[in-house]
Specification:
The complex is a heterodimer of chains A (219) and B (369).
Chain A lengths: L1 E10 L7 E11 L3 E6 L6 H8 L7 E6 L2 E2 L5 H10 L1 E4 L11 H6 L7 H13 L16 H13 L5 E5 L7 H14 L4 E6 L10 E6 L2 E4 L1
Parallel strand pairs in A: 3-8, 3-9, 6-7, 7-8
Antiparallel strand pairs in A: 1-2, 1-4, 4-5, 9-10
Chain B lengths: L5 H7 L1 H29 L2 H7 L2 E5 L7 H12 L4 E5 L10 E2 L5 E2 L4 E3 L2 H11 L12 E5 H7 L6 E2 L11 E7 L7 E3 L13 E6 L4 H12 L5 E2 L3 H40 L2 H9 L4 H39 L11 H27 L7
Parallel strand pairs in B: 5-9, 6-8
Antiparallel strand pairs in B: 1-10, 1-11, 2-10, 3-4, 6-9, 7-8
Helix pairs in contact in B: 1-10, 2-8, 2-10, 2-11, 8-11, 10-11
The chains are: A alpha/beta (219), B alpha+beta (369).
């Protein structure tokens, strides 16, 4: 699904002290499975994910997604890709604080009709969110519940790829385990990329990519 | 309710929305300021209307060229469209009245030599009047004017009331046309001889305004006499500075309000940076986000305008009923100046705010967080 060639990302380009977040490496990713990207802080794992998901554009190199060159598509095409084919789960759930759980999921949905709401309802229930919690705002939900709502939001459009950046960082062990189980289940016929610095959550991963200082050390 | 809609945002963030709505209402109150400015012209509305139909012609006091004047009068008398009425040379100023803003102003008076001339003029102007008490040294004023200056039917006025009066006059009729002019009947003694006009009030049956004035000017030709300027042009000259001042004030207020609203909104939207970063991450287009910001701001502005307009109408109604109308004054409900002032200020607030906030929020990068 993804073919990365010689990908390079530099921060502070104008400055004398440039920072090489990605130092020019190749990588191939399949179209399904749970792939973990692991490394210490500053290793470039989040930057790699941002480049793959079109949130950032690498300075050099190419990223082919289903034979489509992501570094050359327009801003509009990137938006469409993120809306229709990618899903995002962030470290701090990033739920909108004034919206209830259901509305936080619906905000990402491409359709806003009755069927979309029913689909969101099903997702939330499958993730263990009860009916009475649908209208609760994030401040009234637990950390685990918030992250599960974020997962539902990421998956509402049936994306082909889910990018999860430290999805369990702010969760306790039990909730972290539950979240990883959900992602593992989803990865049976989709690609799920999990970026983390915690190896213990990647026990069920199909593949683990280790990064260090902007380079892949083991894949 | 769709979670991305402006109504949803306002419903879920009532406190912030209320604060902004109150701020946006400020520009609506400019409409009220415009109403106060333009209400000055309310007092001159009938004077302009009558002045467009009655034009005075006379010989200047230091010019003894009455031959030209009488020649002109004879020509006018032959014109079937024109009605000539003797104007008493003992012209008097109208009483000072108080405008809605509390300014003391005066308007022109109309002076007629006798009751018949007054009646002819009123018939041509469409003013109904009870002439039973009209005599020499009568004054006719409107009910509104009477209430404004504290006079009533039968009251007598003299030099003590107004220094412009030379003798004692009586309020012998009240009319209901909301004019703020005095209509004098004064036998000057200058018309004992039938032959001579000293000054003339000329009424056209079909013309008015600039068309009428130009018609009389053409008729005058090279003859040495004065065709008095239209009252409307005099009024426009007097009030142009007020109107310019109002627009200038609107511009300044618009700038100040724009800066204040922008600062408050900057803070509001700074707190929503990650929300908009998230929207970009999940594939919402820049155009969609700009429209969302615009819809939120415009909806709050619409609520502010509706509330502000409601308050203004209520205020105007209460002030008119309780204070202004009983004292012969008036604050208009509808004014073009007020509307223009408000629109100008509102545009100065909204346009830069929507552009800066809308475009600004599309540049948020979720990877910053």
């Amino acid at each position: 699904m993804f073919k990365v060639k010689d990908i390079t990302m530099i921060y502070d380009m104008e400055s004398d002290e440039k920072s090489f977040a990605l130092k020019g490496f190749d990588l191939e990713l399949p179209d399904k499975g749970l792939i973990g990207i692991i490394g210490p802080s500053g290793s470039g794992k989040s930057t790699l994910m941002y480049c793959l998901s079109t949130l950032k554009k690498p300075v050099e190199g190419s990223i082919l997604y289903n034979d489509r060159e992501l570094t050359e598509i327009s801003s509009k095409e990137r938006e469409v890709l993120r809306r229709q084919e990618f899903g995002f789960i962030f470290q701090k759930h990033y739920l909108i604080p004034y919206m209830g759980a259901m509305d936080n999921v619906m905000v990402a949905s491409m359709n806003q009709g009755f069927e979309a709401r029913e689909k969101a309802r099903t997702f939330l229930k499958n993730l263990g969110i009860k009916d009475k919690e649908f209208r609760k705002k994030p401040s009234k939900l637990s950390g685990g519940q918030c992250q599960r709502v974020a997962i539902a939001r990421a998956m509402i459009n049936d994306p082909k790829v889910v990018f999860a950046d430290e999805p369990t960082a702010s969760l306790d062990h039990e909730n972290a385990y539950n979240v990883m189980n959900i992602l593992k289940e989803y990865s049976k016929d989709r690609l799920v990329l999990v970026v983390t610095h915690d190896r213990s959550i990647l026990d069920g991963a199909d593949r683990i990519i280790e990064m260090w200082d902007g380079e892949i050390t083991e894949a | 309710m769709k979670p991305l809609s402006a109504i949803y945002y306002i419903k879920q963030n009532k406190r912030r929305a209320i604060l902004l709505i109150i701020m946006l209402m400020t520009s609506t109150f400019l409409y009220l300021a415009g109403a106060y400015i333009s209400c000055i012209s309310y007092f001159y509305d009938k004077e302009i209307k009558y002045g467009n139909r009655i034009i005075t012609a006379y010989v200047q006091s230091d010019d003894e060229n009455y031959a030209d004047f009488h020649d002109f009068i004879r020509e006018c008398e032959k014109d079937p469209d024109l009605v000539l009425l003797r104007r008493s040379p003992k012209g008097h100023a109208s009483f000072m009245f108080k405008t809605t803003l509390g300014l003391e102003m005066t308007a022109d008076s109309f002076v007629f030599e006798n009751k018949d001339d007054l009646k002819t003029a009123f018939d041509n102007l469409g003013i109904e009047c009870d002439y039973s008490q009209i005599k020499d040294h009568s004054i006719v004023i409107s009910k509104a004017f009477a209430a404004n200056v504290g006079l009533k039917l039968g009251d007598q006025v003299d030099e003590k009331y107004s220094r412009f009066l030379n003798g004692t006059y009586t309020i012998d009729a009240i009319i209901y046309d909301n004019s703020y002019n005095c209509f004098y009947v004064e036998n000057s003694g200058a018309y004992d001889s039938d032959s001579a006009f000293v000054e003339a009030n000329i009424i056209s049956k079909s013309r008015s305004g600039q068309d009428f004035w130009s018609y009389l000017s053409d008729k005058r030709g090279e003859r040495k006499l004065v065709i008095a300027k239209l009252i409307s042009s005099q009024v426009d000259e007097q009030f142009a500075p007020f109107i310019l001042l109002f627009y200038g004030a609107s511009l300044i207020l618009g700038l100040i309000l724009s800066v204040v609203v922008n600062s408050v909104l900057t803070e509001f939207y700074l707190k929503r940076r990650f929300e908009f970063g998230l929207y970009r991450a999940i594939g919402m287009s820049r155009g969609r986000l700009v429209r969302k910001v615009a819809a939120e701001i415009l909806l709050m502005n619409l609520i502010a305008v509706v509330l502000g307009a409601g308050l203004i109408m209520l205020f105007t109604f209460l002030m008119n009923e309780l204070i202004y109308l009983p004292s012969g004054r008036f604050l208009p409900y509808w004014t073009l100046i007020g509307l223009f002032g408000f629109l100008m200020t509102d545009a100065m607030v909204l346009i830069p705010t929507i552009i800066t906030k809308g475009v600004g929020m599309t540049k948020v990068d979720v990877t910053e967080f």
